Amino acid sequence: MIDFEDARERMVQQILRRGVDNPAVIDALRIVPREMFLSAGMERHAYEDAPLAIGEGQTISQPYIVAVMCAEARIRPEDRVLEVGTGSGYAAAVLGRLAKRVVTVERHPRLAEEAEERLRELGQDNVEVHVGDGSEGFPEAAPFDAILVAAGSPAVPDALKEQLAIGGRLVIPIGPENEQRLVRVTRTGVDAFQDDDLGGVRFVPLIGRQGWLPAVQDDGPAGLSRRIAAAAEPLPDVDDPSFGQCFDRWGDRRIVLLGEASHGTSEFYRARAAITRRLIERHGFTVVAVEADWPDAAAYNRYVQNRSPSLSESAFRRFPAWMWRNREVWTFVRWLRDRNRSIPPSAAAGVYGLDIYNMQASISAVLAYLDAVDPEAAEIARQRYGCLTPWQDEPAGYGRAVLTAGYRTCEKAVVEQCRDLLRRQFEEDGGEGLLDAAQNARLVASAERYYRIMYYGGAESWNLRDTHMFETLEQVLQAAGADAKAVVWAHNSHIGDARATGMGRARGEINIGQLCRQRFGDDAALIGFGTHEGEVAAATDWDGDMEIKRIRPSLDGSYESLMHGTGLERFLLDLSRHPVLREELHTPRLERFIGVIYRPESERSSHYMEASLAQQFDAFVWFDRTTPVQPLSADDPHQGVPETYPSGL
């Protein structure tokens, strides 16, 4: 059980240390329960000093920013205050503790309704919630002694200045999303205003008649493609040394997630490698976390960190071997090994697998570690894992058997084993070997449940898998140190916020991109990739041979067709720099997803899903025509069944 009062006090102390010491503001922050303003399941993050997503492309501002804006507005107990951008209602609740009357305006009806209900539960009857265009203020209740705007505007709206009382203060972010400054405007006379720059900030755009105008959508797909082309930043060839420089703008993030629209496209792999090289060399990233199994990625990790003389031939031999045993990955792995040789081991970057794969290898890794350090514990682990061994070579069969046999006892056994290793990790400094073994134990526990529940259908198996990947990422970051930064390589279906897709809206599925946004806020960058046509390495059936397949031109009305309509060969679309276009790209459209399986004959039903591109991603990388990855060996044996069945993404 979380002690919210204790967490709230720690948040307040952190804000005090950062220089906000207005007594009334601090008292209000101590009183208002921020956990009440978050959706179910998000409460545990309530007192982290970070913005958190609340839906509709909006966020609840980080506590420090709320405190700064309230303090800089210099609110007095007798003041009338206007807030533009109600959001979750948290800031309005804080303002209600500071002022006599608060009017707050929200343009999204759902958010306004939810905020009003939360404020009513708190008994704050001095706060009025209205739906409308906040850029035009709320003249019916003007003038106001203070106005706070929780969204960035291209300039200070005249309507808001006019609604200030003489002596009133307006606090508002000004400028494009990546260059915003927080400004305080004080009305010193009927037509006189004084501006004070309060520093750099980052807010969602203020959409409205006196903010960023809503996008015009009456000129059809061709017009939208022209607007995308105008906003697009042409990219050099993916092998050009300057390619990675275009992504320096995300070098200060904690996590940069790089997607792919298929598992078998050369340009996606080469682009991710170029971006990752740049982030490692210039921005201090040390974790490369990939949609792959932990034990096989660990073999790559030993090689890149120069703890193994050669790359293990046994790594990534299972279906789909081409996904990681390809020349594009091999080129990056060799580069990383060479770079790590030239720097201190403490600064070396590593490669880590996130996924629930290869249960057999994970069990073996746990037992090998325990055999070396604690043979008695190894024997106990063998007994616990014994009920899983019939399915180590065909783990999907475990799911079938558990429906009719008494194998549910395995769940308790593997969880006990996982807990034992985690307990060791906390009690002793076991170095990398212990981290590896603990993660393998965690993987076995998750995999046992995954194979059991995937035969029930529904969203549970997908959610378990992506939750496991996210938790693994958190564990790796924690082990790498408080300042560690990570690059994630995974399919668009994993790194694009699931809440903006049919998988989230219709099927209740979550993914690692959504979880990263909820946990890290603006400290995570989600970058998707796409293509119009070309060729891809993929299979027709599960465990089938790799084939080079022609990608059909994208369907009319899809996001891919809009990108193709720009006429540009390759480009970067940074949605944060174009808030008006981003608003237009909120509209759900078809988006293509190709996994390790590609069936062109049923492409519409097999590979397209409705999504909101602007809510999925912070940026999008486009290659109009693409080529397949080059497998290291065309006859790699495929052993067992694909353990991501039935999704293949």
What are the defining features of this structure?
single chain; 649 residues; alpha/beta; Rossmann fold; EreA/ChaN-like  fold; 3 domains; nine-stranded mixed sheet; seven-stranded mixed sheet; 23 helices; 20 strands; globular; disordered C terminus
Give the SSE map.
Blueprint lengths: L3 H14 L5 H9 L20 E4 L2 E3 L2 H10 L7 E5 L5 H9 L2 E6 L2 H14 L4 E5 L12 E6 L8 H5 L1 E11 L6 E7 L5 E8 L19 H12 L1 E2 L20 E4 L7 H18 L3 E7 H11 L22 H15 L8 E6 L3 H15 L1 H11 L10 H7 L6 H19 L3 H23 L6 H21 L5 E4 L2 H4 L6 H4 L6 H9 L3 E15 L8 E5 L7 H6 L5 E5 L4 H6 L4 E4 L10 H5 E4 L1 H4 L2 E8 L23
Parallel strand pairs: 3-4, 3-6, 4-5, 6-7, 11-14, 11-15, 12-13, 12-14, 15-20
Antiparallel strand pairs: 1-2, 7-8, 8-9, 10-17, 15-16, 17-20, 18-19
Helix pairs in contact: 2-4, 8-10, 11-12, 11-15, 13-15, 14-15, 15-16
Strand share of the residues?
Answer: 15-25%
The CATH architecture name of the largest domain reads 3-Layer(aba) Sandwich
Put simply, the count of helices is 23
Bulk shape:
globular
Overall number of strands = 20
Kindly report the average pLDDT value. 85
Determine and state the CATH class of the largest domain. Answer: Alpha Beta
- The residue fraction in helices comes out at 25-40%
CATH superfamily of the largest domain: Vaccinia Virus protein VP39
Largest sheet: 9 strands, mixed
**How widely separated are the two ends?**
35 Å
> Unreliable runs, pLDDT <50, ≥5 residues?
634-647
Compute the CA-based radius of gyration.
26 Å
